[in-house]
Design goal:
The chain is α+β, with helices and mostly antiparallel strands and 121 residues long. It is 31% helix and 8% strand. It contains three helices and two strands; from the N terminus they run ααββα. The protein has helices at 2-7, 26-31, 56-81; strands at residues 40-44, 51-55. It has a two-stranded antiparallel sheet with strand order 1-2. A hairpin with a 6-residue loop joins β1 and β2 (51-55). The longest helix has 26 residues, at 56-81. The chain is elongated.
């Protein structure tokens, strides 16, 4: 956990007020473009070790991008169900795959070097 904290950029400190309110430090508001009236979604981190604040417009953009990808997949599946040719062409409206999203070739790390054992009947 300490290593993760050391990688993060410290943007200030704040105190929880009587009604549970916090003031986001000016430097953080400026850097992340937070202005009066902006909606911010609050997510809890695992093990209750912290909170994550995300502007609602960021979540909306991710949802829109995901929906566009799903629409492309839906069209691809419909084409295959209609007897259309299976294609390796990119899906329309879908972003190009990145190194993180490409499927690894060969064995996966989970199964690499591990022989499958048979269960006794």
């Amino acid at each position: 956990m300490l290593a993760a904290l050391l990688k993060a950029r410290f943007l200030g400190a704040t105190t929880v007020g009587e009604r549970g309110q916090i003031v986001i430090p000016a430097e953080a508001r400026k850097e992340y473009g937070l202005e009066f009236g902006d909606k911010v979604l609050v997510f809890g981190r695992h093990h209750k070790m912290g909170l994550l604040l995300v502007k609602d417009e960021v979540i909306a953009r991710y949802v829109d991008e995901t929906m566009a990808e799903l629409s492309g997949l839906e069209r691809l599946l419909a084409n295959r169900d209609d007897g259309g040719p299976a294609s390796d062409a990119p899906i329309p409206d879908a972003p190009a795959p990145t190194a993180a999203t490409k499927k690894p070739k060969g064995r996966t790390p989970r199964s690499a070097g591990r022989a499958r054992s048979k269960r006794p009947d």
